[in-house]
Amino acid sequence: MPCRNYVKLKKIYFSFQPFVIVLLFSLYIHILTQIDWVPHNRVIEVYKMSVFSRSVLLLLMLTLASPSCSLLFLPTQHTDVIIINTLVGNQDLKIHCKSKDNDLGEHVLQKDQTFHWGFGISVFGNTLFFCSFQWGNSPLQHYDVYVENRDWLTCETCRWYIKEDGPCRYEHDHLQCYNWN
């Protein structure tokens, strides 16, 4: 059973992971090539490790940098997004959600019906999912339902309640509503 601070640890780890990857790669390069600079002769001497030692060192550093590294007990963060039709009346909600890489298609949600998908967040902090929404004779509305640098600390399950005025979700035990994009 995970400790009480597991989610906090995961979020801290993911905020520093790109830094950790760069640091470990720099350390690998430094260990791999120890450079002695001789200013008068402008000669660089490079002492290389054996191929086996370099391979083992690289594998160790990549393992430590990996978000699924069992040594750190921090699995890759999986995020779920749930869209719920909470429009007034019995209006159907037509949605079309996608990211740069994935088109989730068009869906029609009846009152209180949901559409759900899950994904792993990017180690580079650039995961983005956006949706268009339309009901009745309303104009087409848009909203970014998951922006990693905005949402990864707020929700692992982002549950959006779609209302006429804009999408809403629970944040810190209260309903927070946003304007359409």
Structure keywords:
alpha+beta; 11 strands; 181 residues; Immunoglobulin-like; four-stranded antiparallel β-sheet; disordered N terminus; five-stranded mixed β-sheet
Blueprint of the fold:
Elements: H1 6-32, E1 34-38, E2 43-47, H2 51-65, E3 78-85, E4 93-99, E5 103-109, E6 114-120, E7 128-134, E8 141-147, H3 148-151, E9 157-163, E10 166-171, E11 174-177
Parallel strand pairs: 3-9
Antiparallel strand pairs: 1-2, 3-6, 4-5, 4-7, 7-8, 9-10, 10-11
Describe the structure.
The chain has helices at 6-32, 51-65, 148-151, and strands at 34-38, 43-47, 78-85, 93-99, 103-109, 114-120, 128-134, 141-147, 157-163, 166-171, 174-177. By secondary structure, the chain is an alpha+beta fold. The chain has 2 domains: 6-65, no CATH class; 78-177, Sandwich (Immunoglobulin-like). Strands 6-3-9-10-11 form a 5-stranded mixed beta sheet, with no helix packed on it. It has a 4-stranded antiparallel beta sheet with strand order 5-4-7-8. A two-stranded antiparallel sheet has the order 1-2. Helix 1 (6-32) runs antiparallel to helix 2. The longest helix has 27 residues, at 6-32. 14% of the residues are buried.
